[in-house]
Write a structure and sequence with these properties.
Elements: H1 2-28, H2 35-42, E1 52-57, H3 65-80, E2 85-89, H4 101-107, E3 112-116, H5 127-131, H6 139-148, H7 151-160, E4 164-171, E5 178-180, E6 194-196, H8 200-207, E7 211-213, H9 220-225, E8 231-232, H10 237-240, E9 251-254, E10 263-269, H11 270-274, H12 278-310, E11 315-318, H13 321-341, H14 343-365, H15 374-378
Parallel strand pairs: 1-2, 1-3, 6-7, 6-8, 9-11
Antiparallel strand pairs: 3-10, 4-10, 5-8, 5-9
C-alpha cells in the first residue's frame, strides 16, 4: 500500500509540474519560430537524374587556405548530390586572372565563383561591408546578421544586379594586426609609419598620418626585408604564418581592428543557377551553410596554433586604450562619409549598425564567463 501511495504521489507531482510548465509557456507563447519549417512543408520536387558539370573560378592561389574553403564547398556539393552536380574548382590564373573572377561568372564563362566581396569595391563600395570593415562585425555578428537580420537579402540584392546569385560560404575570423619593425602602440607612433594594407583601412590610416601602400600580398615580404615598408597587415594568423613575415619583423601590433572578420561568398551565374533542379538548389544552400560553419572552426583552430608559433619569434604588443579610441573615431567618421556619398553603403552599414545596437545588451550581459585559463581569470582577465 505504501508503495502504491509513493507511486501515486510521484505521478501527481510529475503531472503537476508538466501542467505548471505548460501553463507558464502559454502565458506568452513560444519565443521564436523556424521560418524554414513552413517553407520545407510546401516544397515539392522530383529529383533529377541529370548529371551537371560546372566550373568554379576564384581569386585564390592553391597556397592560400581560402582555396581550401572553396574546394570544401565543391566537395560537399558533389558528395551531397551523389555526383549529380560536380563543380570543378580552378585556382587564380588557371582559367581566368584572379580579378576577373567576378566578371567571368557574371557573363557565364564559368558557372560559379568564390570570393572575398571587398575585392569588388571598384564596382560598388557596398561590397566592402559585406566582407569586413574596420571595427565592424565579428564572425558571430556576420552569421547572425546574414542569416537572421536581413544581411543575406541585402547581399543577394547587390550581387543580383550583376546577374549573380550569392550565398555566404566561408568565414576566416579576425585578422592579425600589423607585422612591424617599429613598436607602435601610441597614436604618435603611427605618424609617418610606412604601412601595407588595403580597403577602407588604407584611407583610415592615411587620415591618421601613416604612409600607406596597397602592395600585392606577394610583394610584402621583400618590401619589409628591404626596409621599403615599416609594417604590413595580411590576414589571419594561419594565413600569415606561411608568408614568413615573422622572420623579418620584430613586432605584431594588435588588435587587428581593420578586419574583425573576413566573410567569403560563393556566387553563381543566375541564368545557370535558375536552370538547376530544385533539389540541387537546396543542396547548394545547405552545403554553403555547412562550409560557413566548418571554415570558422577550422581556421580558428589553425589560428591558435599559428599564433603560438609566431609569438616565439615576434613580440606581440597592444595599442593603448587612447589609440584604439582615436582609431575608432576616425573609422566612424570615414564610414559616415561613405554612407553620405553612396546610398548602397548607407543601406548595408546602417543595417549592420542596427543589429550591433540590438545585440549589444546581450553581448554585455553574457560577458565575464569567457574561458580563459584559470590563472588568467582569477588574476583579473575576465571579460572578452
Amino acid at each position: 500500500m505504501k508503495r502504491i501511495f509513493t507511486l501515486a504521489l510521484c505521478l501527481f507531482l510529475v503531472l503537476a509540474f508538466t501542467a505548471s510548465f505548460a501553463s507558464a509557456a502559454e502565458k506568452r507563447g513560444k519565443f521564436g519560430t523556424d521560418p524554414r519549417h513552413d517553407v520545407a512543408k510546401r516544397v515539392k520536387f522530383k529529383p533529377s537524374d541529370e548529371k551537371i558539370k560546372w566550373k568554379m573560378v576564384m581569386p585564390w592561389s592553391k597556397g592560400l587556405l581560402f582555396y581550401d574553403i572553396a574546394v570544401h564547398f565543391c566537395d560537399s556539393v558533389r558528395l551531397a548530390s551523389a555526383g549529380r552536380l560536380d563543380i570543378k574548382p580552378f585556382s587564380a590564373g588557371e582559367l581566368v586572372p584572379a580579378m576577373q573572377t567576378f566578371d567571368s561568372v557574371s557573363k557565364g564563362s564559368a558557372q560559379a565563383g568564390h570570393d572575398w566581396a571587398g575585392y569588388w569595391k571598384g564596382k560598388n563600395q557596398a561590397f566592402v561591408p559585406l566582407a569586413d570593415s574596420p571595427f565592424g562585425l565579428d564572425p558571430e555578428g556576420y552569421n547572425i546578421w546574414l542569416y537572421e537580420k536581413g544581411g543575406l537579402e541585402l547581399a543577394q540584392e547587390l550581387y543580383g544586379r550583376y546577374n549573380l546569385t550569392a550565398l555566404p560560404c566561408g568565414q576566416t575570423g579576425q585578422d592579425m594586426g600589423l607585422f612591424s619593425n617599429k613598436r607602435a602602440t601610441k597614436m604618435e607612433d603611427f605618424k609617418g609609419l610606412r604601412v601595407r594594407t588595403v580597403g577602407w583601412y588604407m584611407d583610415i590610416l592615411n587620415e591618421l598620418g601613416a604612409s600607406v601602400s596597397p602592395l600585392p600580398g606577394g610583394e610584402v615580404y621583400l618590401a619589409l626585408e628591404r626596409g621599403v615598408l615599416d609594417a604590413a597587415e595580411f590576414s589571419a594568423p594561419a594565413m600569415s604564418y606561411p608568408m614568413g613575415f615573422d622572420e623579418i619583423t620584430k613586432y605584431v601590433i594588435e588588435p587587428g581592428v581593420h578586419q574583425p572578420a573576413s566573410q567569403c561568398y560563393v556566387f553563381f551565374n543566375t541564368d545557370a543557377y535558375n536552370k538547376l533542379p530544385e533539389d540541387l538548389k537546396w543542396i547548394i544552400d545547405l552545403c554553403a551553410k555547412e562550409t560557413q560553419l566548418w571554415s570558422i572552426n577550422w581556421i580558428n583552430s589553425l589560428n591558435a596554433e599559428a599564433i603560438n608559433r609566431l609569438s616565439k619569434s615576434v613580440e606581440i604588443v597592444q595599442m593603448d586604450k587612447e589609440t584604439l579610441i582615436e582609431f575608432r573615431k576616425t573609422a566612424k567618421s570615414y564610414v559616415d562619409q561613405l554612407k553620405a556619398k553612396y546610398p548602397d553603403v548607407k543601406k548595408i552599414v546602417e543595417s549592420q549598425e542596427k543589429f550591433v545596437e540590438e545585440f549589444s545588451v546581450w553581448r554585455g550581459a553574457r560577458g565575464g564567463v569567457s574561458p580563459w585559463p584559470y590563472e588568467d581569470y582569477v588574476s583579473g582577465k575576465i571579460y572578452e
